[in-house]
Amino acid sequence: MPEYTNPNQTGGGQDSRLFTVMILVMFAAIFGYQWWQLKHTPPPEPQHATPAAQSQSASSAAATQGAPTGPATVAEVKATGESTTVVENELYRITFSNHGAQVTSWVLKKYKDGEGHPLDLVHDEAAKIYGYPMSLYTYDATLTQAISQALYVPSATGTLQAPATLSFEYAAGNVTVKKTFSFGADYVVHADTLVTRGGSPVRALLSWPMGLGDMEGTSSFASSQIDTAYKNNDDHVAFKKVTGGATLNGPFDYAGTSDQYFAAIFMPDQPTDATVVTFHDMVDAAQFTKGSRLRQFVTNDKPAKLPMLGAAVGSLSGHNEERVFVGPKAMTVLASVTTATGTSLKSVLDFGFFGPIGKYLFVALHFVQEHVVSNWGWAIILFTLFINIVLLPLRIQSMRSALKMQRIQPELDKIKAKYKNPGPTDPKAAEMNAEIMDYQKSQGVSMFGGCIPSLIQLPLLFAFFTMMTRVVELRQAHWYWLHDLSAADPYHILPIFMVLTSFLVQFYTPSPGVDPQQQRMMAFMMPAFSGWMTWNYASGLALYWNTGNLVMILMQLGINYSSLGKEMKKLAADRAARKSAGPKVIQGKR
């Protein structure tokens, strides 16, 4: 929202100090929030640990599974060559390879990548190194490698239309593997997998080991996290805090990995028996070819280290039965998917520190977009107008409070003169402030009356600030020259306009109780700050902020020409005249 300051507060030195405190609180909130973000997403540190390497480090755990490695053999089941099977519905197109019985492509039909192609959530470049989705992770590196490279016998090849079932089988030596996948009309796939060795189940977890394919900017990598939940307790662990190869024991309603807009989430059929292994690998962008999407992160021959998170989820028993959600973190979509205990996936969408406010802001914005105007840009504009209309009575009340303060200002000046304007450390300052507050109370004046709109609007601004880059609905949403409201304005038109509208807000809003030097500082500092805030941030925020500024300017002009505004102007002029008529002090020469 546009209103940062308490522009209508009056009351001389004491109110100037109050104004200064408000500004300091505002900046403390902004930088405190940035510190909170950095704490949860600090700069990455190199970690090169592939799932195979993680398996090796934990290979000793195989002994604890009680899985025999005896010489018992089984009838061999192998394919003679590679084949693919495509399963699709209206939402996705999934390509399975019998090489490892894993997924090589998971296309979401309703979403596009940065180049306008259908979005593939399999990050093929990383998957070639770290593993493909629906591969199996065991605590034995040799076994993991063997079953990931084996040629399975599929139950079908070609193209299947959901609802459908697809299974893969493999057997060699004393090892058998069977994977069965069931597909419906939504984003959820049911998986049933079992690995045996010597006739006994092996703890083999179904995995998504290599991040998501929509990662095309640094913010996508920085927002990578591991999501877990059981009943009403959800946890979102930022990439820096994820330990590669760590085992987390349940219960879990769901567990998986996500980034800004998409997620791969596993939902065990038996939450109390669930276990999770987390993957954390640092991708060196320089290792990829020049045509690779990851090469964009190589600048001046200095490649970035990019985090790739993954997760493997399965049962302690070794027989995994779970559902897998792979899709957008859209609020309505997540709400429609329920876990085995009946809770939904809504908590996968994390709105951050101002979560409760951001969530309901988006619910209201989505209502406008769905029932009033279909374009998200216009929905932001109408929503901002609505918020300002709702807050108009508070703004008028703030003006009235400021007017009351101006009316008693002469008496307040007398009190200050009686105490000879003591400094803040002077013991008399406390006595003076107490007398001022007593007098204000007797006159029905609250020194905080003019702060209410700012106190309400600042949390709204910060919540909107966070929400703009968390909701997939605004990803690639168009509005005139803006092709993505969740990305920065490519021509910086809105940030430049932001500087102008912020200056006009300061110019037209009377601040008679604020020190002139502070007024001049804020008249230039706040516009520069708002322009800087929106320069490289989501253009939807700049659209929201500019709209609020324009509405505020029009409202303030109306108030300035009302009887309320005219009286405030007259009282301010009278006070200025009294000050200018006071005795002048001439400094003598030494």
From TrEMBL:
Topology of this chain in the membrane: Multi-pass membrane protein
Domain of life of the native organism: Bacteria
Example GO BP: protein insertion into membrane
Signal peptide location: none
Residue numbers spanned by region Disordered: 42-72
Domain Membrane insertase YidC/Oxa/ALB C-terminal: from-to ranges: 376-560
Subcellular location: Cell inner membrane; Cell membrane
Molecular function terms, GO-annotated: membrane insertase activity
InterPro entries from the UniProt entry: Membr_insert_YidC, Membr_insert_YidC_N, YidC/ALB3/OXA1/COX18, YidC/Oxa/ALB_C, YidC_ALB_C, YidC_periplasmic_sf
Keywords: Cell membrane, Chaperone, Membrane, Protein transport, Transmembrane, Transmembrane helix, Transport
Keyword Heme: no
Record-level GO cellular component terms: plasma membrane
Biased composition (Low complexity): 47-72
Subunit relationships: Interacts with the Sec translocase complex via SecD. Specifically interacts with transmembrane segments of nascent integral membrane proteins during membrane integration.
Function: Required for the insertion and/or proper folding and/or complex formation of integral membrane proteins into the membrane. Involved in integration of membrane proteins that insert both dependently and independently of the Sec translocase complex, as well as at least some lipoproteins. Aids folding of multispanning membrane proteins.
HAMAP family xrefs: YidC_type1
NCBIfam families registered for this protein in UniProt: yidC_nterm, yidC_oxa1_cterm
Recorded family membership: Belongs to the OXA1/ALB3/YidC family. Type 1 subfamily.
Protein name: Membrane protein insertase YidC
Organism, scientific name: Bryocella elongata
